[in-house]
Amino acid sequence: MNKETRMITKEDLRKDLSDLGINPKGTLLVHSSYKKIGDVEGRGDTVIDVLLEYMKEGTLILPTHTWDQIAIDKQPVMEVEHTASCIGILPDIFRQRPDVIRTWHPTHSVGIYGEKAQDLAKGEEFINTPCGPGSIWNKLLDEKASILLVGVDFTRNTFIHCIEELCDVPNRLTEEIHDLYVITPHGEKLYTPQYRHRKGLGSQTFWKLEALMEKEGVMKKGQFGQAQTMLCDAQGLYRILSQMLSKDIEILSDNEPLEPFWYEMNFK
Predict the structure, then answer these.
(1) pLDDT in the model for residue 93
(2) Where are the beta strands (DSSP E) in 81-207?
């Protein structure tokens, strides 16, 4: 029987990670849809166990975003230890695991596991945009990170927002600053003002990059359980997209496929 007709085991998932060629001593950021993985023995806890065990000598990062529920007119306070993630069950399981450090960003926090976790998490409370310079998203470049999309596409690839910020793409952030707060694990309330992503200019156009990034060897496809995956090289993604933005700063502003000439370019 294949994985589509039986329960998916921990060993199945461990093999899938190995088959993807992920460096267990490197840095891995995972975006995920738990439902797409299939029926797993032990459910979400098993998935997190496998990821933690596979990356035990490296660094594992899962987004634990709260942008959907943290807002001036709703709830302007994010509690690091208690506010649930708005992007799925696996991030919420992960953030509550021992030795996982959650960053102190009010809307775009991540959970980090590994020896580098404390250092990588430092300073997030001083980042006043979702994914700006100096943020954990920017640090993925220095870490030569891989980004694994499990059952989701590039529209869930938050790192692309970071590239937009690094390349000064206009009109992505609000002009006004939002008064938000973070309550730390020690109970301290910090003022963490934020320029937010503008409504209507989100990540819905990022899908158009997938075929080009696969062609350029920056992204490769695979499988994790029953979920289709995309494994991306953060440095390669930045290298190519930054060159594209230098030629057309609005390349991600419409929902149309890329023009054919992009596939003929010689990226440095």
Answers:
(1) 98
(2) 101-102, 110-113, 146-150, 181-183, 189-191
